[in-house]
């Protein structure tokens, strides 16, 4: 029979002794099904030059027959751009494959192995030409398996990535626990409440008599709703592990998957739930640089999700909220799962497209670091080209000169245009065919040379990077073209897809210089950065000859005085002479630079204030200092009289000295980046972390510490105190003023010629025309 399904997820399982790939999906009629296909994993042995291939194959066949059940097939493929002799070794199971690989990787005559480090499900997808989050038309026959309709896969007839996905059911969930002695511990502290939101319907399960009943209540809820997507925030690190730990403790396994199995930890630290997509939205937030503090409140602000109050519940207030303010707690937990639901809905098309492009399942694609996403995309593209990917191995990082950044002109500038190159680095890699498989290390022919470099890149045939980038750029152009002709929901979908393509395209250049990349090649990254610098230099020179005042340049953008006709001329010149695209990315009515690179603030045409690189947008500065600087910057950019900015700075300082500040604005948040025992220097946040550990709190690398500087004597790290232990009158306001507030407000004021004396005195009014 024929069946059309949308692929949710793929995984590998041994069923009745057979290596089997399970394809979980949704049919066009809305049925949830699983397809089963027996699959024998394989890998390639790349034979060294000068080795007699026939003799090697015979030796391998004899060896394999005596130890493993394998098939050996000889094939000619490409490796690092050159044609090579290979042997495909087909095994009956992943365990056999690993045993065979461990023997062959060091065998005489073996240059390299390939594909042995891929997940069986990933290899299966590439082998069959499948893709997650796509429609597939298949021939199947019904079989008995598990708890939902199951079919044995006979053959794949069609794969379609373009049609919109079916309606997917989702559940956003949040586990609440607390401990009066520190961080909740699944060995001793029970789950107190689980909040859920399914398509806007909220439910909350509270601990009553039995924790096992609470967990089972949640499991029954999941089975009833039967979601395709389960989403949490930090659920890979807290919610799922906690459910597993407590379920084991109270003899109630958290078997909420469609296979009635428990979640298991997979690649990239992700917890997989068989048959469902488990999405940790914290991973989405981690990738967004504009969100400084990676919590739900900051995410809600970024995505413009309205909140009536703060939803994030810190470990330090959890016990008290449960004990005496439970109504408030329940409200905040309800709001938290609502924020998750909104985030999931707004980013689903982005995640689907990223999954389709990379070949990573949707629930893995956010957890995977950017380098691994590019890696997966390139492996997929290489496989389709008949190019075998090298194994991943960490290599020593070799430095090279990066992008060109000009020293800015400090002060205020009026009417500034930011000219931004469209995908400059990927386009340069495409134009010059820069790829590891096209590298000519010594004495490159003229047509392969790049001026200023001792090596070059062959141009006779597109390399792997050029082919991969070309596909992405063409896809992005097509999506943009379609965007111009649609509105409403369809436009939003296309815009999210275009964003995913842009993110992946721009990540390829960074991947090239990442030592963990399969195709790591310093020359590729160095040559691309070199060409980027040359392009910026040529554009700067052209601006000067045209009479366009250059204010700043940064990697792939140039800040100039706005002149519409000259900018149009510049754009045409760049397209003709450099074969690149450049456009006006942003217009500032007023722009202020400090003396430092990558630190500026600007007033956009719509009246909003952009702040880049300064303390006002740094999460490791307390909000009292960030707000002070932002207030001064806003006054500088919006008020014609610079005395107003100075007055604002004085007002802020006086308010801080008077203690007119909310307690949470004093908190300084810092991240613990390594185990505490590895810190040799006593810094405030490390000493606070040690104090918290002594009191029972857990502290791991990546965890954040919030502290306030108290009044008193002693060194700074001795005065740093966990914020929940400090009362308002105990704050060392003088420290904050001298070491945080004044430096924050003086950074922009200094760029305008003001001094500390001006801040403390009553100077004559100065206007913008004085500068």
What features would you describe in this structure?
- The chain has 771 residues and is an alpha+beta fold.
- Helices cover 39% and strands 22% of the residues.
- It has a six-stranded antiparallel β-sheet.
- α9 crosses α14 (488-512) and α12 crosses α13.
- The mean pLDDT is 91.
- CATH class of the largest domain reads Alpha Beta
- The CATH H-level homologous superfamily of the largest domain: B family DNA polymerase, palm domain
Number of helices: 22
As a percent range, the share of strand residues is: 15-25%
Strand segment count: 28
Overview in brief:
The protein is of the alpha+beta class. It is 39% helix and 22% strand.
Architecture blueprint of SSEs:
Elements lengths: L1 E14 L2 E10 L4 E7 L3 E6 L5 H15 L2 E10 L2 E10 L2 H11 L5 E5 L5 H9 L6 E9 L6 E11 L9 E7 L16 E6 L2 E6 L4 H15 L3 E4 L6 H11 L14 E2 L5 E2 L4 E4 H6 L9 H7 L12 H10 L1 H33 L3 H4 L4 H16 L1 E2 L22 E11 L2 H8 L7 E2 L15 E2 L6 H20 L4 H25 L9 H25 L3 E4 L3 E5 L2 H15 L3 E12 L6 E5 L4 E4 L10 H16 L3 H16 L10 E4 L12 H11 L9 E6 L6 H4 E3 L10 H19 L4 H5 L11
Parallel strand pairs: 3-9, 5-17, 10-13, 13-16
Antiparallel strand pairs: 1-2, 1-8, 2-3, 4-6, 4-7, 5-6, 8-9, 10-11, 11-12, 14-15, 18-22, 18-23, 19-20, 21-22, 23-24, 24-25, 26-27, 27-28
Helix pairs in contact: 9-14, 11-13, 11-14, 12-13, 12-15, 13-14, 15-16, 17-18, 17-21, 18-21
